[in-house]
Amino acid sequence: MILTSSWLAQLAQLVAADGLPPETCSWAPLPRDDDFDLSSGFVDSVPRQFARCSLALDAAGGHASGLLETLIFGMPPEHSFSPEASRCPEGLQFEELLLSPRYLVVAAQPEVARSSDWRELIPVGACVPPACHEAFANLALPRLLEWRQGKSAKYHPSPGPCAGAFDVDDASCVQHLDQDIRSEACVTAVHVWRVLCDARFFDELFGAQVRSLPKDSLGESSEFAEHQKAALGHYSTCKEGGGSYVGVYFNAVGEEDPAGAGYALGMCIPSLHTTYSSAVSTIVAWRLGLRMATAYPGVAIDADSVRSAELMHRNELEIGWAIIGLGRSGTTSLAAWLDSHPNLELLSDPEDHFREGSFDYLFRRSHLEHLIRRDELPSAARAGSAGPVRGRRTPLVGIKEPNLLRSSRGRQIMAEMKRTKVLIIFKNWVDWLKSAALFIRPTPCFPRNLARIGEEGNDCSFAFDEAHLFEKVRDLEQKGVARERIKVVHLDTLRAEGPAALRRLGAFLGAGNRSTGSSGSSAGAMPQEGEVAEDEVEFWEELCGLPTELARRLERRRSEALRGCDELLRRSGEPIPESVLRPVPIQQEACQRMKSKIK
User: Are 245 and 268 in contact (CB under 8 A)?
Assistant: First the structure.
């Protein structure tokens, strides 16, 4: 099946493909193309009445119109409003009806409290365009009730038999709310009208690229940055307008993409505070065919390849803290230590030796995603998904992802996560050099080649600038990470202070300054985890005997890496160890390490 440029005819095909009867909802009929032909010669019908009203509501501004301000509720047993209350601005007319409180319960409207009995009807009225006279009850009113809820808007079915000019049959209303509104065909029809009544808003929020391809540059002027700005802008506007932002992934006809869909575009649709049903998938496919035909008429969409998922911003993740570097500097040990704190919890893959892999390695998988898929996360990771257990403090959840400090894109991701505090650990530069160089696969780098990086014939590939913390922290701040969210610590200090340092870190993270569990047992010293590098003795031996000129090159490398580190520790309220203030000459330290290892 190919998604075509035909408008509502395409929707009817999709509904039929899903096995849904196209005309089962008299109170919310599925529209057809000719319903929007407002010229004379057509028999007036409910779909045509809906079409006229939807166009008028959209022209008035949809969810952003001033119609919401005219919505009023009365107090039973009064069944009409005073002339003053029903006075409307020019171009609008007042419509009123009686509404069953049962419907207000389904629609989550507070005015249900005005009725003391299920059969006590509540008057409601609003100023609407004259085109909505016939469709006020089943189209205009549910949209106004929906729009007034803003970002918490829910799916509002038409009231059907739950509304009337003079009376309401309670039995019919109960059946309607219990059965009729749950029909997938009816849900589809309501979603269509939700779109059409605010069409300009939804049309403007289509087509942002929600996933980019790898680029050499991720800077502010790059194509990646432009795509990200567009996607985040559409997402924010959509959420503010009470919509849900979805990613649509698909191939063009004739494309073969074994790695996945060739296109990844964003789309705003009405809010999904109920369930992601097949009706929503139908609406997404319909909107995709319609908008692509307008924006990219030369692209034919393979309907079988279309996949969609609701998207969310990383800032919505319930992550209180993150260890983002420096790799090979004690990050695994720090992660295990913080996890032992009674009020902190580390998320990781249980099989990961380095205590990484949170959310199934989300931060690596979604590196090029501007927004992330909500369905790929456990419910506990989403903002507001769960509250604390009574009488028990909910642990602050954290992650360990050293790659986030290493790259500009990773630092940008941390800037987006505005509620997450950042921990950066580093250690004696000589120890870091040994750990990082010997960890290189498949062939480790040894001191002589490290000192000769860049010379012809040297196969060693090593990034010394990964340890340039001051530049990376400054970039974090320039990207928007507040200074008070960042804490830089030194491994030597943590090991020397033991539990006192853990209490200090817990206090910074907002977990209190306790380091004892519920049993009263005190947390121990910082554990030593992670892989121990092989060939240590050979590394120290070669570094100890390095020619003077090559040793000087490494000294310059260390000076570059330590520049500003004392200031970072001072800002964080951390002690500054001797290895930062007055580092021992590299060769002297290497010779001492070699002797201690040989013993």
Answer: yes
Sheet strands (E) in 26-99: 72-73, 93-99
Distance between CA atoms of 249 and 204, rounded to whole angstroms?
19
Question: On the CB side of 264, how many CA atoms lie within 13 Å of its CA?
Answer: 22
Single-letter amino acid code for the residue at 358? S
Alpha-carbon span 310 to 212, nearest angstrom: 18
Burial environment of residue 231 by CB neighbours within 10 A (0 to 12, 13 to 18, 19 or more): buried
Look up residue 274 and give its DSSP letter: S
Task: Sheet with 122-128: list strands edge to edge.
Answer: 72-73, 122-128, 93-99, 163-164
H or E stretch at 103: helix 101-106
At 294-318, the pLDDT tens digits run: 888 888 888 888 999 999 999 999 9
Cα 536 from Cα 421, distance rounded (Å): 35
Contact 256, 303 (CB under 8 A): no
Q: What is the pTM of this model?
A: 0.85
Which of 70-74, 397-401, 520-524, 570-574 has the weakest average pLDDT? 520-524
User: Rounded to an integer, what distance in angstroms lies between the CA atom of residue 386 and that of residue 316?
Assistant: 13
Identify the weakest region by mean pLDDT among 40-49, 353-362, 533-542.
40-49
The tens digit of pLDDT for each residue in 502-532 reads 999 999 999 987 655 444 445 688 998 766 6
Window from 259-263, 359-363, 400-404 with minimum mean pLDDT: 259-263
Q: What is the pLDDT of residue 283?
A: 87
Alpha-carbon dihedral 71, 76, 78, 81, rounded to 10 degrees: -10
Nearest residue to 569 via CA among 480, 473, 476, 490: 490
CB 294 within 8 A of CB 401: no
Question: Which range is least confidently modeled, 50-54, 281-285, 422-426?
Answer: 281-285
Q: What six digits make up the tokens of 302?
A: 């393979």
Full DSSP string of 359-376: HHHHHHHTTTBSSEEGGG
Q: Which residues contact 22 (CB under 8 A, 6 or more apart)?
A: 12, 15, 16, 30, 185
Residue with tokens 């997938």: 184
Let me know if 351 is exposed, middle or buried by CB neighbors in 10 A (0-12, 13-18, 19+): exposed
**Mean pLDDT, the chain, as a whole number?**
87
Beta bridge partners, 309, equal 247
